[in-house]
């Protein structure tokens, strides 16, 4: 293998992983911290344990918004295209069980939780385990309410009213500001 090929493979691998190291803190391309724990995780109110589930996204250069925004030859898809989430949704039952295990949830009632994407697929989130957490259905501010906010932010991004990066940050760190009666700041 020549040096050019090796460098191309290395760059592609870094893009695929979506992570860079900045000092001692690893961040993905959305500026979200990379998971530092894989066990002993605890749900923090309406949010996951950010050490376990900081959120993870497809590298920005692989996503399109209304057909725009990338010069990459590796395109995951256009988040504004109907059917996009179906084309990228890929969380196995085994991965879901691993998430429950990470959070110490061994017994649960049917429909008590869903394994949810912290950054939803429709906002460029991916299926990495660091983007998944057990979200409770209970209460007026549970999983279904977050789904409504995900849809709202998706519409804003696709209408050009909000950047994809801002929507990813808001859904992962302060989605409740868009849900009246659910105000809570995870810190």
If you had to describe this structure to a student in words, what would you say it looks like?
- With 187 residues, this protein is of the alpha+beta class.
- The protein has one domain (19-178).
- The protein has five helices and six strands; from the N terminus they run H-E-E-E-E-H-H-E-E-H-H.
- The chain has a two-stranded antiparallel sheet.
- The chain starts with a helix and ends in a 14-residue tail after the last helix.
- Mean pLDDT is 80; it is low at 1-30.
Write the layout of secondary structure elements.
Layout lengths: L2 H15 L1 E4 L2 E4 L34 E2 L12 E2 L5 H5 L4 H10 L10 E5 L14 E5 L6 H16 L5 H10 L14
Parallel strand pairs: 3-4
Antiparallel strand pairs: 1-2, 5-6
List keywords for this structure.
187 residues; alpha+beta; two-stranded antiparallel ribbon; two-stranded parallel sheet; 5 helices; 6 strands
Give the N-terminus to C-terminus distance in angstroms: 48 Å
Overall geometry? globular
Rg over alpha carbons: 17 Å
Q: Domain count, please report it.
A: 1
Strand order of the largest sheet: 1-2
Largest sheet: 2 strands, antiparallel
Please count the beta strands (DSSP E, at least 2 residues each): 6
Q: H/E element string?
A: HEEEEHHEEHH
The SS-based structural class is alpha+beta
Query: What is the mean pLDDT?
Result: 80
Percentage of residues in helical conformation? 25-40%
Tally of alpha and pi helices = 5
**Low-confidence region ranges:** 1-30
As a percent range, the share of strand residues is: 5-15%
Short description, anyone?
The chain has about 190 residues and is an alpha+beta fold. Helix content is about 30%, strand content about 10%.
């Amino acid at each position: 293998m020549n040096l050019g090929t090796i460098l191309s493979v290395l760059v592609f691998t870094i893009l695929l992983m979506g992570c860079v190291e900045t000092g001692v803190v690893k961040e993905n391309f959305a500026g979200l911290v990379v998971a530092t724990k894989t066990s002993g995780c605890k749900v923090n109110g309406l949010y996951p344990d950010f050490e376990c589930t900081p959120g993870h996204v497809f590298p920005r250069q692989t996503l399109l918004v209304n057909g725009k925004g990338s010069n990459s030859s590796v395109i995951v898809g256009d988040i504004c295209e109907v059917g996009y989430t179906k084309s990228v949704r890929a969380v196995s039952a085994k991965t879901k069980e691993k998430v429950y295990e990470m959070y110490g949830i061994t017994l649960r009632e049917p429909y008590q939780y869903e394994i949810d994407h912290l950054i939803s697929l429709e906002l460029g989130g991916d299926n990495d385990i660091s983007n998944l957490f057990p979200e409770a259905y209970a209460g007026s501010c549970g999983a279904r309410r977050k789904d409504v906010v995900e849809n709202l932010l998706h519409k804003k991004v696709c209408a050009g009213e909000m950047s994809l990066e801002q929507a990813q940050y808001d859904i992962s760190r302060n989605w409740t500001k868009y849900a009246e009666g659910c105000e809570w700041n995870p810190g």
